[in-house]
Amino acid sequence: MKSLESLLPTLRQPLGLAVGLGLGAGLFFPVSFCERLLGSGILASVLVEEGLKLALFLLLEAAALREPRGRESLYRYPLYAITGFATVENLAYLLRAPTSSIYERLLFAFPIHLNTGLCFALAFLPGRPSLYPAFFLLSLAYHFGLNTLALVLAGTPVLAVGAGNLALTFFLFLKLRAMLIERSLEHAGSPNE
Amino acid sequence: MLETAVRDYLRLLLKRRDRKRSLNRLVSFGLFSLGAYFLLLSALLLFGFSLVLFHLLFFAAFSLFPLFFLFEAEVDPLRESVRRIDEDCLLESYLAAGSQEHRSFMISSVRRLLERRAARGEYPFRFSRANAVLAAAAFSLLLLTQALSLITLQSFSPGLSARQFKARLAEREAAREAAGVREGRPPALGFPGQERPEAAGPKASSRSGESRAEAEMRKGLAEEASEPPRIFAGEAPQPGAEAGREWERVLVPLPEAKKDLKALLEAAVRGRADEAGMPGSSEAGSGDSGLGFLESPLKRYLSRPEGIGAGGGRELAPGGEQTEALREQVLGALFSDFQLQAEAPLDFDPLIERIKERYLELLNEKP
Questions:
Q1: How far, rounded to the nearest angstrom, does the alpha carbon of residue B36 sit from its chain's CA centroid?
Q2: Would you call A181 and B99 a contact, using CB atoms and an 8 Å cutoff?
Q3: Confidence grade of residue B155 (pLDDT, cut at 50, 70, 90)
Q4: Domain ranges of chain B
Q5: Cα gap B127→B115, rounded to integer Å
């Protein structure tokens, strides 16, 4: 029992990764069911998917209340789940329409999910839940706008917008890392560290 | 509160660490994707599974890229960085000090340490050990793919995509089936050291109409592997055209991974045998160890004069080619099923229809 407790810090991240990915992959099915119930329009699917992300981060807020300094590791779990969800969604598309154009989704749909998740993480990390409504609306507009644009655009413009989308992912990721560094320095400067 | 100089140096240190880590993760992702691609290509060559499954697995592997940046062991980056540059636990003691008063005792020593470290430069970019392992694994998988390519396709193919590999596999399978069917014995192709029909030169392929058809089919499939799929709709071969061009014109490229080429070829060859009305022929594998699949050519040669008589001497007409009818039969039999896959040509033109109608009306008006 003692050895298990000593192993727990080492296993926490791999276990979190497995659970997060599995949860996200599993959530794809109820989410697509809800989308179908709501009519399968773009707005309906965007509402359900962004609502799910918001719910994941709100659940995490509850967990962070018990462990205020655990935000630096907790923020990853919803992002693991979002990765699992986006992967299964893309695989479902590939099974439905097996063409090589599915790789465009790696530039389009995948970064959209990741970017909105990173936005929520940017609100979660400093512990500012008041930012969630604003980020939720922003995510809705961004997700809906790009999905609609993908229907209008075809060929090279899709790839160009996709490259910009991916660049935004890296920008948000670097922003998150910079925030983590600042938080780390804040902890170092505070007493009893 | 940390002194500004200490804070700035620690920030710089953490940013360098982070940049190095992110770059290494990016390289890891690239190497992982390459390794996954070569592994799947090897599996494709070994098991010949469908392209959909190949892309499904590769897509799933490729979709894991956020994890390369997000996943991190439970390590405090600041503590790790501080311990990397610290001497006699000076910096760590400074950071752990409970009050400014305690810190002020240590600040001069801490400054000297940081100046020394700043001059040296920490966290220079270097590939991580994990990347070295991943690079070795990716390279080994590339070698494995090429070895398997040499065994199964009898050539190295470093630049081929999964689709092209699949086409080559189908081509080899078709050639093997055709060879087995023609010779009535287990296929000779696919085993190293044995002569390939295309390697035997033009003599081998011009021995008969069948071997020529096979060579052309192989050529067509190889072209198909390097080009986007095309549909040749309803274009009939020209009677006086060059033989090679005729074959190309009727070749309908196969949408790969959807055809059971073996079954199609078997059906086609069976159809040819039936059309030819050859007595004594049987389906592949159903006769005595496959030897009774085709009758003796001598028998057919002896019955040739009767056949010419029955045909009214048509095949001996001036300008006619004796093998033409046979070649058309082979061609029709081989590709009769495939032509069903081709798109039906647009054969309805309202203008033409109107002209036809008007023409018939004018004919009727004639006394």
A1: 15
A2: no
A3: confident
A4: 4-143, 160-339
A5: 27
Q: What is the pLDDT of residue A136?
A: 94
String of DSSP letters for B246-290: HHHHH-----TTS--HHHHHHHHHHHHHHHHT-TT---TTTSSTT
% of chain B residues with pLDDT over 70: 52
Range B80-90 average pLDDT: 78
Rounded distance, CA B272 to CA B331, Å?
A: 9
**Predicted-complex ipTM score:** 0.85
Q: What is the CA radius of gyration of chain A?
A: 18
Minimal C-alpha gap between A141 and chain B (Å):
23
Residues 6+ apart with CB under 8 A from B178: B210, B214, B217, B265, B269
> Cβ contact (<8 Å) for A73 and B74?
yes
Q: Across the interface, do B11 and A12 touch by the CB < 8 Å criterion?
A: no
**CA gap A178, B136 in Å, rounded:** 33
Do the Cβ atoms of B78 and A103 come within 8 Å? no
Amino acid letter at B195? E
Q: Does A6 touch chain B (CB under 8 A)?
A: no
Of B61, B58, B55, B57, whose CA–CA distance to B28 is shortest?
B61
**A68: DSSP letter:** G
Instruction: Convert the pLDDT of each residue in B115-152 to its tens digit.
Output: 887 777 777 778 888 999 999 999 999 999 999 888 88
- The pLDDT of residue A62 is 86
Nearest CB among B56, B73, B99 relative to A13 is that of B73
Chain-chain contact of B2 with A185 (C-beta, under 8 angstroms): yes
Per-residue pLDDT at A172: 93
Asked if residues B196 and B178 have their Cβ atoms less than 8 Å apart, the reply is no
DSSP B239: T
The per-residue pLDDT for range B180-208, each reduced to its tens digit, is 766 665 544 444 444 444 444 444 444 44
User: What is the pLDDT at residue B85?
Assistant: 78
- Report the Cα–Cα distance between both ends of chain B, in Å, rounded: 115
The beta-carbon neighbor of B59 closest among A10, A91, A188 is A91
B272: which 2 tokens? 């040819």
| Number of Cβ within a 10 Å radius of residue B294 | 20
What is the Cα–Cα distance from B34 to B28, expressed in whole angstroms?
Answer: 10
Report helix, strand or coil for B291: coil
pLDDT at B344: 46
Is pLDDT above 60 for A97? yes
pLDDT at B322: 53
Looking at chain B, which residue has its C-alpha nearest residue A92? B56
Nearest to A17 among B2, B56, B67 (CB): B67
**Rounded CA gap, B361 and B367, in Å?**
12
Tell me the one-letter amino acid at B184.
Answer: G
Continuous H helices in B48-127: 51-62, 65-70, 77-85, 90-96, 100-120
Taking residues B163-188, report their average pLDDT: 73
pLDDT at B262 over 80: no
